[in-house]
Design goal:
Elements: H1 4-26, H2 28-35, H3 41-64, H4 69-91, H5 98-122
Helix pairs in contact: 1-2, 1-3, 1-5, 3-4, 4-5
Length: 127
C-alpha cells in the first residue's frame, strides 16, 4: 500500500504503540494507577514489549516510506486484537473502563487503514 494516508497511519500507530508499550516498562506504578492493579507484572511487561516491537516496526516502515501488505496486516490485526481484548474484558468488569478508550483508539486506527486501502484502490496507477 502506498500513499500519504498509509504512511501517516504507520507513524501515528507506531508512536501510539511505542508510547503505550514502553509506559509499563518504565513506570509500572503510574501505569497501574490509570489501568488498575495487576497481579502478573511479568505479563504486563511481556505485552508492553510486544506492543513496543510492533510500534517500532511501524515506525521503521513509515521512516523508510515502505508500507507493505504485510505491514498493514500487522497494523490492522494487532489493533483488532487489542481492541477485542479491551472490549471483552472491560465490559465484563475484569479490567477498568479506561480500556474502552484504548478500544476506541484502536478502532479508529483500523478504520483509518480501511479508508487508506479504499483511497488507494480508487487512485489510478501512474505509468
Amino acid at each position: 500500500m502506498t500513499g500519504r494516508a498509509a504512511k501517516s497511519l504507520a507513524w501515528i500507530q507506531g508512536l501510539y504503540f511505542l508510547a503505550t508499550g514502553l509506559w509499563p516498562l518504565f513506570d509500572i506504578d503510574s501505569f497501574q494507577a490509570v489501568t488498575g492493579p495487576k497481579t502478573d507484572l511479568w505479563l504486563v511487561r511481556t505485552v508492553g514489549l510486544l506492543v513496543t516491537a510492533i510500534g517500532g516496526t511501524l515506525l521503521v516502515a513509515a521512516w523508510r516510506r515502505h508500507i507493505t501488505s504485510e505491514l498493514v496486516l500487522l497494523a490492522v490485526s494487532s489493533a483488532v486484537a487489542l481492541a477485542a481484548i479491551d472490549l471483552i474484558y472491560a465490559l465484563a468488569g475484569v479490567i477498568r473502563k479506561i480500556y474502552l478508550a484504548d478500544a476506541a483508539l484502536e478502532s479508529l486506527l483500523v478504520a483509518g487503514w480501511v479508508c487508506a486501502w479504499f483511497m488507494q484502490k480508487r487512485t489510478p496507477a501512474h505509468p
